[in-house]
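Researcher: I've been going back and forth with a colleague about how Solute-binding protein family 3/N-terminal domain-containing protein might be arranged in three dimensions. Neither of us has a model we trust, so I'd like an independent prediction. The organism is Blautia hominis, in case that matters for your notes. Sequence below.
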Amino acid sequence: MKKNKFHRIICVLAAAILTAAALTGCGTPKDCEGEGKITTIEKGVLKVGIHLDDGSMGYVEESTAKPAGFAPETAAKIAEKLGLTLEIIDTTEENLLNSLDADLYDCVITVGTTDWNQEHYSATKPYADVSGIQDKLGKKAAYPKLAIFGKKGTCLIPAIQNQALTPLIKDGTLTEISKKYFEKDIILK
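Model: Here is an independent structure prediction for Solute-binding protein family 3/N-terminal domain-containing protein. You can compare it with whatever you and your colleague have in mind.
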């Protein structure tokens, strides 16, 4: 009788330990609130896909051959807030989300919010509205409210929203960046 009771206790403890281990691997709600460690980043580098032939949104500075513009500077401030090094990966406008699916980078900075994008990817709240700067963009934006997009199922986008994007909006940093490149504020409050 004692042996049988002992085996039951061992089985219950083993089941509890296995359940706890499985849940730990899935990420905790605290992580997904953006309060915990971002586990999707490799080697402390935030890889951001940006179209670097997009006028003031993103371009390569001729004198330095480095990325410049609203999107690269915004990405740099986000990486800084997260305590990460930034790597910008140039891509075409058409491939921004496709290359995200191919794991070429962790997120994209300046993508318009659509129902389809938000259904298939994780997204921050829209942080900028480019409808008032169509002349600076050289084209009409079909979806003028921009968000940061990443793959579904990771805690990266909530962490970017809570630990970087919201503080950068509140302290006026993104407003200053938008005024620098567009001479007006495009940041949503």
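Researcher: What would you highlight for our discussion?
Model: I'd start with this: The CA atoms of residues 101 and 183 lie 34 Å apart. After that, consider the following. The first strand starts at residue 45 and ends at 50.
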